[in-house]
């Protein structure tokens, strides 16, 4: 019986590599728990908050191209985000271009481009608005 | 060979290699499923914590009742489970990075961590099963020869109701988890008539019964001689209940019950239950 117990203890013995993997794994797990715990503690349920930045970025094939960067600073992921860029000339809406994004997770950014069919003339303004998004 | 004072490094390297192969084998379908990536950033931090804890408990159960060194002490089971989770996290991070699903710039820590954690849980169960299963040929027979006396005591713990339920749970999660995050479950459940749902439940029960009564998978323990009606009903009930519970948990995690009527949620459980009940009954025999 004693012999058996001894044998079991020997089998349980781990070498350096296994201990290293164990401690690394434990450190990973603990840091994940710390991080998630901190998040839970600070988590305030808030709807998505979508910010849009845009600037002209013409290319050879698409001279009227605009680059669009969408950021979500809210507390929740937004699904099916629809961004509209409106080209206005003399106070009148001339053209509208749309960008559809599948998901914009909280804290993350997504990028895309839109194209207008005509070159914005001098004095024209381009404005952006987030038309819609849904709760995933 | 294993009785030398410390396990040789080459031995543990082999074990890790088996674990990694198994982890990828069982979790590649999930690593390549977009609904799972989405779950990473949709899930709340509290849900992620719950997922990690649940997976750790599953690993403990699996390692205790089916792990390769089933004669190991609880301390060893705890240590092994942590190792497997660590490997799972590292693998998940590496594969997602390779697939371009995570990037280190422009992506919030929440999104990155969420994706890695959700995938890592599937991978670490795979690592655990892989370590135990892929090495069963060399390790298993050897151990039986050298440690026959432990085997006897082991039979008892393995055939107990708790052990059965734990293995059924692992099998159900392993098989059912692969399709649970997909939209198809929702689509089938929402479009099903009550008669379809009833049919699915009956088929699940039949499958479980057939598997447990007639199948004799290679390498499994010989069944006890007496197969009574009672034991069949008992086993079928355990595995179906466990399968439904596993289905409900996984579906809830992927947010499939939000704003759903009771009927739709129930129908989803039964729909997924067809797969997870097969996992609970067949998986239980295969992965032990």
Folded structure, characterized:
The complex is a heterodimer of chains A (136) and B (288). Chain A is an alpha+beta fold. Chain A is built from two helices and six strands, in the order ααββββββ. In chain A, the strands form two sheets. Chain A has a three-stranded antiparallel beta sheet with strand order 1-2-5, with no helix packed on it. Chain A has a three-stranded antiparallel beta sheet with strand order 4-3-6, with no helix packed on it. Chain A is elongated, with a radius of gyration of 27 Å. In chain A, 19% of the residues are buried. By secondary structure, chain B is mainly alpha-helical. Chain B is built from twelve helices and no strands. Chain B is flat and about 50 Å long. Chain B starts with 8 loop residues before the first helix and ends with a helix. Chains A and B meet through helix 1 and helix 2 of A and helix 1, helix 2, helix 3, helix 4 and helix 5 of B.
Number of strands of chain B: 0
Give the low-confidence spans of chain A: none
Largest sheet of chain B: none
Report the β-strand fraction of chain B as a percent range.
Answer: under 5%
Contiguous runs where pLDDT drops below 50 for at least 5 residues of chain B: 137-158
Number of helices of chain A: 2
Query: What sequence of helices (H) and strands (E) makes up the elements of chain A?
Result: HHEEEEEE
Which structural class fits the helix and strand makeup of chain A? alpha+beta
Put simply, the count of helices of chain B is 12
Q: Largest sheet of chain A at a glance? A: 3 strands, antiparallel
Largest interface: A-B, 35 and 46 residues
Shape of chain B: flat
Helix/strand class of chain B: mainly alpha
> What percent of residues of chain A are in strands?
35-45%
Lateral strand order in the biggest sheet of chain A: 1-2-5
What quaternary form is this?
heterodimer
Q: Report the end-to-end length of chain B measured between terminal Cα atoms.
A: 23 Å
Helix content of chain A: 25-40%
* Average pLDDT, all residues of chain A: 86
- What would the principal axes of the Cα set say about the shape of chain A? elongated
């Amino acid at each position: 019986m004693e012999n058996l117990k001894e044998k079991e203890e020997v089998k349980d013995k781990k070498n350096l590599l296994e201990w290293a993997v164990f401690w690394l794994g434990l450190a990973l797990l603990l840091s994940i728990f710390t991080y998630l715990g901190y998040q839970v503690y600070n988590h305030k349920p808030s709807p998505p908050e979508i910010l849009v930045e845009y600037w002209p970025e013409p290319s050879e094939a698409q001279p009227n191209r605009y680059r669009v960067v969408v950021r979500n600073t809210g507390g929740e992921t937004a699904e099916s985000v629809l961004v509209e860029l409106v080209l206005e000339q003399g106070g009148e809406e001339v053209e509208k271009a749309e960008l559809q994004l599948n998901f914009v997770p909280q804290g993350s950014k997504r990028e895309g481009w839109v194209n207008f069919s005509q070159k914005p003339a001098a004095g024209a303004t381009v404005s952006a608005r987030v038309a819609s998004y849904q709760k995933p | 060979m294993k009785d030398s004072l410390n396990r040789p490094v080459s031995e543990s390297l082999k074990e890790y290699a088996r674990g990694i192969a198994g982890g990828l084998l069982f979790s590649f379908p999930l690593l390549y499923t977009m609904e799972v990536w989405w779950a990473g950033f949709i899930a709340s931090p509290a849900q992620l914590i719950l997922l990690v804890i649940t997976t750790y408990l599953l690993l403990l159960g699996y390692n205790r009742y089916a792990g390769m060194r089933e004669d190991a002490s609880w301390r060893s089971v705890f240590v092994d489970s942590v190792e497997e989770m660590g490997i799972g996290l590292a693998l998940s991070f590496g594969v997602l990075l390779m697939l371009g699903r995570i990037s280190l710039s422009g992506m919030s820590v929440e999104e990155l961590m969420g994706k890695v954690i959700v995938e890592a849980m599937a991978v670490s169960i795979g690592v655990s099963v892989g370590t135990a299963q892929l090495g069963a040929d060399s390790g298993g027979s050897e151990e039986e020869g050298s440690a026959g006396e432990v085997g006897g005591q082991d039979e008892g713990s393995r055939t107990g109701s708790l052990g059965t339920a734990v293995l059924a749970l692992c099998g159900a999660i392993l098989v059912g988890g692969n399709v649970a995050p997909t939209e198809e479950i929702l689509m089938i459940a929402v479009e099903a008539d009550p008669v379809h749902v009833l049919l699915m439940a009956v088929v699940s029960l039949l499958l479980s019964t057939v598997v447990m009564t007639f199948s004799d998978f290679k390498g499994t323990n010989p069944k006890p001689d007496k197969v009574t009606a009672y034991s069949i009903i008992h086993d079928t009930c355990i595995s179906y209940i466990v399968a439904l519970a596993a289905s409900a948990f996984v579906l809830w995690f992927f947010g499939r019950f939000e704003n759903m009527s009771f009927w739709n949620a129930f129908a989803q459980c039964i729909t997924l239950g067809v797969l997870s009940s097969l996992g609970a009954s067949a998986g239980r025999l295969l992965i032990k």
